[in-house]
Structures are given as structure tokens and as C-alpha cells.
Amino acid sequence: MNLRSRSKVSAEFSMASMTDLVFLLLIFFMLTSTLVTSSALDVILPKSKAQSVNKASITVTIDADLKVSVNDAVVPMDQLELQLLSLASQDPERLVILRADESVPTGETVRIMDIAYRNRLKLVLATDPR
Fold first, then answer.
1. Strand 122-125 relative to strand 95-100: parallel, antiparallel, unpaired?
2. d(CA 17, CA 19)
3. Which of 53, 55, 62, 110 ranks highest by number of CB atoms within 10 Å?
4. How large is the average pLDDT for residues 13-23?
5. Closest CA relative to residue 126, chosen from 107, 104, 101
6. 8 Å CB contact between 106 and 113
7. 104 contacts: CB under 8 Å, gap ≥ 6
């Protein structure tokens, strides 16, 4: 009597289904990583080469004494948002250029960046070309 079976089980393992699964996971993570947004303020930083802005712009300047001026007119900090909105309402594509002295605390510049962010104004932080 022959007790051995005629069909033998193959001990080979096919990697095709494993590579398909890896590629699907890779595509999933690539797609979901592009949907993640950071909670930082969107700021267009200029390059440190000398460039000029061709669009009409609103210039906000903060000096070392924390005096804020909009287009060379001194404005109290609590009136800054109203002043920016009134100037930006004339042309929605106007660019706000923030010129802050290097001794100004970061919190003051972030406060102005936040005003521009909340009102969907385009903001550029001015730098020294040197």
C-alpha cells in the first residue's frame, strides 16, 4: 500500500502580493502627506538679492522704539488693522511690505503678520540686500 500523496505542497513564497501592498502603502502616504497643512503663517520671504516690487504696495515700518507707521504716517497699534484694511480695500491685490528694525522683538512682527494673515493680505518681510 502506497501512503505517499502524489501532490506535493510547494514551499515557495511569492513576493508579488507583498510588493503590491508596499506600493499601495507608499502611494497612500505620498498622497496624504501633501494634504497636511501647517499652522504657520504664510509669508512670502524675499531672496536676499536686491529686487524691486513692481506692484502697488503698502509699507508697514516698525522702528527700534516700536513706533508703527503705514506709508510714512504714524499709526497706533490698535488702529493698524483698520488702516491696513482701508488701504487694501482700494486694491485687493496690494502687497504689504513689512520693514522691521532688527532690534524689534519677534512678537511684534508676528502680531502684524497675524493681522495680514487673518485678513488674507499678501505680506512680504523686507530684508537688507547685503
1. parallel
2. 6
3. 62
4. 85
5. 101
6. no
7. 62, 63, 64, 66
